Amino acid sequence: MSEQSVIKSKIMIDMVNKNPIEDGAVIFENGLITLSGHYEKIKNKIKSDAKIYDYNDSVLIPGMVDCHTHHNGFGDGRSGDSIGEMEDNILSIKSAKNAKTSLFSGVTTIRENGPKNLTMMKLRDAVNQGLAIAPRMVLPGRPIAIIGGHMGYFGGEVTGPVESLALARQLIKEGVDYFKITATGGSTATSFPLRPSFSQKELDAVTNEAKNYGLLTATHCLSMEGIDNSLNAGVDMIIHCNFDNEKGESKFNEKLAEKIAKKGAFVNPTLHVGRARLWNLAIGKNPSLGGGENKRRLSSSIRSDRKDILEARLDAAKLSLENKLDHCRQMIDMGLKVITGSDSSWGDYSLGNTFHETELLVESGYSNYEGLKSVTINAAMALGLGDTAGSIAKGKSADFAILKSNPLDDIKNLSSVEEVFLMGQHIDRGSDESNKTYSQIKPAQF
Amino acid sequence: MTNENNNLLVIKIGQLIDGISKSVKKDISIVINGNQIVDVKPSGELDIPENLNYKLLDYSDKTALPGLVDSHVHLTGIGDGRAGDELVTLSDEILSINMANNARVHLQSGVTTVRDCGAKNNTAFHLRQAVEMGIAESPRLVLSGRPLAIIGGHLGYFGEEITGEDECRAAVRYLVKQGADFIKVTATGGSTRTSFPLRPSFSQQELNVIAEEAHKFGKHVAAHCASSEAMKRVLNAGIDTIIHGTFKEVDGTNKYREDVAELIAEKGAYVNPTIGSASLKIKTMERKKENGNFTEQDQEELDSINREQEHRLECFNKLINLGVPMSAGSDSAWGQYKMGNYFEEIEAHVKGGQSPIEAIMSATNIASKSCWIDDNLGSIETGKLADILIVKEDPTKQIENLRTVVDVIKDGQLIDRQSLL
Questions:
Q1: Does residue A322 lie within any of the structural domains?
Q2: Does A237 map to a domain?
Q3: Are residues A78 and A224 located together in one domain of the fold?
């Protein structure tokens, strides 16, 4: 019995050739790509009993790779602190639902950035048991944080190089794929976003152990000292990468950016999570407080719907987004390895909408093609999956998204997903109606 | 019409099975306001003022019946044949994910209310929280949480093994505190490896305390009984539903016991006969037989299941003749019985001697009565919650027509039956 399958398309963007291939087709067997190219050129390799998927009006791209997800999250503005208080069973149910959302939206590989306890490891178990479906998942177990540090509520608070090393080893024992470290505070109420969290020695303890086992590392950095410490520790990806000093002044620092370039670290700027907050503030939906604010000062004695406060928050969100876009443009101009990592479902940004982040990378200076690279092949390389995912090439996993419209014409067309394949398997996405339920659309005033 | 808002939905139907009446009504309109049925009347007599906006769903050539009530599910099950003893080795997180999937599948198949007869630890209560948070689609949940079991008893591995009157009382109180809607107790052993299906488990005194304490809080009790002797005990304790109700002697012989049957009738207890899983098994094996590849051992197994099922159907028939109310409940996804196939159980009720409309009543109104939720559910009447099933073909002609589900309405809302989220 032949296991061979073929997808025919109007246009194939394989992320290997710079130019899209008209009438492009891909042949795959046992979940792996065996051949791709112009249909006429490869059709003699198609077996007579191959399963043919004919998408002659559509665009074939590699399945998308999202380097930064939170499958525990809701994307409805609620705080991470409140998610940290939820039962693991409930977060597991939410994660299983979110994972379907990711996959149905065309994302076939995700790197998780902060789940509670073992919830995502358990989702992986459920997938292996055939009780859930999910994209390929690159998992950190839980983030490594200082006491009171960002996402400490997810179960990974440690102090000192020895405890840090011990947690790293414990995580390896649990089967994680990489380490996520919060090198500064963040939206977590008890944390300090403008201050570094771990000492250099603590960071080194984790990155050394990662190198020992061939694992990658990524650090959450909302201010510059955290970035610098991370680079010194040899971290592979800087997340958020905010050029804020400890006073909260945000000014692009070319020297630090050069250091990122020199170290070869990837940058995941997380632009849309701020824009999503802005959108929700503007339309009056209950938005998250965001990373830069000290929530302990914004105590519950102040009504959050007070107009002056809302406006101040709206202004702050606008300014912060403008700064981030500007800094991202400069990093792109300098040739830094900037990739797509949505940070959904965090804050107001819900999963299934990865394209919004790529869109903002394009707004920051990427061409549509470079934007597409940032959410496919370059993202795969950032995750150490350059041989497995991110392009349509022989030997790679048969992960595809079939789009109605061409993302090279408009990057937003990444949202026009019609069909998804993961490891050669045609994914049943359920009803069209249900696939509209998770899409977040730009409010009219923007 | 008394409502003033715009949340009106009118459902025109060709034929109504209301769950209570043994006859069907033709050309009926059901008027729904929000999640409640506010009127049920002949379509010709519909008198909605012209200035009121309403949404219309036209099923003029179809049959409506109450959303199905499955009075016995295990949302935690997988239905792939694995034993409960193996199932519980899965982590609570995985079981939670599975429960949420099962709940959605069962709802999409037409079941709008389930009574969950036992899940591990806190998973059932956490599923309810997830539903309330809007992250899981589910039928209405009537929950027991953890079943009460003796040490080593059936389903004890779900986390509630207790001994003695005080522990029984404490367990009931603790489950009620956690939000249990009823108490499930395993009054005999069952498929659990360390248990004895032919022997009663809890003592009379323990059962008395369980029933007394549950009733004190307005909660009912359902007892798993895989043999006859335990039925007497649970009935004397005042337990409300007998599950399985298998007439078997301590030595394993099948014997219909008139004394027990009369006691059931006298006490007014409900029986949830769970006869669908065996008929499903028989069907599966017969299909295997048709396809060849049927061993001698398979044949022996099929013969044995057939013999057992014959006995169970006979007993079923005798009980309905005594007027015992039969509460349909699938027991899926236990054993090999996957969720979304409640029809199998309802069809088995017809095999046991109920007419199709009686079987539908067993799966709607009677099931809702046995779950103590009939104030709001189980029939299509003014004042009830708007849980409605629309089927294409007439199930009163042939019960298998119940499978021709067109739409499922819960709380006045159409369910997306194709969604996988």
A1: yes
A2: yes
A3: yes
The strand order across the sheet containing A178-182 reads A178-182, A216-220, A237-239, A266-268, A337-338
CA distance B23 to B383: 21
Q: Is residue B346 part of a domain?
A: no
Same domain, B94 and B54: no
Q: Give the number of domains in chain B.
A: 2
Q: Which residues of B touch A430 (CB under 8 A)?
A: 418-421
Coil/strand/helix, residue A243 = coil
Question: B371 in a domain, yes or no?
Answer: no
Note whether B179 and B312 are same-domain residues: yes
The string of DSSP codes covering B224-257 is: EESSHHHHHHHHHHT-SEEEE---B-TTS-B---
Is residue A363 located within the same domain as residue A218?
yes
- Answer yes or no: do B46 and B100 share one domain: no
Contact residues, chain A to chain B, C-beta under 8 Å: 74, 87-90, 92-97, 100-101, 104, 118-119, 122-123, 125-126, 129, 131-132, 428-431, 433-434, 437-438
Question: Cα–Cα distance between B32 and B412 in angstroms, integer?
Answer: 7
Query: Hey, are the CB atoms on B135 and A90 less than 8 Å from each other?
Result: yes
The answer to whether residue A338 is domain-embedded is yes
Listed in order, strand segments (DSSP E) in B294-348 are none
Search chain B and give the residue with CA nearest A97.
B421
Of A177, A225, A227, A234, nearest in space to A206 by CA: A234
Q: Looking at the structure, do residues B25 and B105 belong to the same domain, yes or no? A: no
Residue B138 lies in a domain: yes
Rounded Cα–Cα distance for residues B297 and B291 (Å): 16
Q: Is residue B357 part of a domain?
A: no
Residue A313 CB contacts under 8 Å (≥ 6 apart), including other chains:
A281, A287, A289, A290, A293
Q: By the 8 A CB rule, do A142 and A100 touch? A: no
Task: Please tell me whether residues A248 and A128 are part of one structural domain.
Answer: yes
Supply the range of the domain harboring residue B302.
68-340
Residue that terminates a domain, selected from B318, B340, B362: B340
For residues B45 and B163, state if they share a domain. no
Position A41 in a domain? yes
B90 part of contact set with chain A, CB < 8 Å: yes
Strand partners, A401: A61, A420
Q: Which two tokens stand for residue A352?
A: 């299934």
CB contact under 8 A, B418 and A104: no
Instruction: Choose the mutation target among B80, B94, B125 for the interface with A, i.e. most A CBs under 10 Å.
Output: B94
Kindly determine whether residue B94 and residue A93, on different chains, have CB atoms separated by under 8 Å.
no
Q: Do B136 and A93 touch (CB under 8 A)?
A: yes
Q: What is the ipTM of this complex?
A: 0.90
Q: Are residues A85 and A136 in the same domain?
A: yes
Give the domain range for residue A76: 65-377
Instruction: Decide if A88 and B92 are in contact by the 8 Å CB cutoff.
Output: yes
Residue A421, domain CATH: 2.30.40.10
How confident is the prediction along chain B (421 residues), in pLDDT tens digits per residue? Answer: 444 556 899 999 999 999 999 999 999 999 999 999 999 999 999 888 878 889 999 999 999 999 999 999 999 999 999 999 999 999 999 999 999 999 999 999 999 999 999 999 999 999 999 999 999 999 999 999 999 999 999 999 999 999 999 999 999 999 999 999 999 999 999 999 999 999 999 999 999 999 999 999 999 999 999 999 999 999 999 999 999 999 999 999 999 999 999 999 999 999 999 999 999 999 999 999 999 889 999 999 999 999 999 999 999 999 999 999 999 999 999 999 999 999 999 999 999 999 999 999 999 999 999 999 999 999 999 999 999 999 999 999 999 999 999 999 999 999 999 999 9
Do residues A266 and A337 touch, judged by C-beta distance below 8 A?
Answer: yes
Which one-letter DSSP state was computed for residue B178? H
Q: Which residues contact B304 (CB under 8 A, 6 or more apart)?
A: none
Tell whether B285 is within 8 A of chain A (Cβ).
no
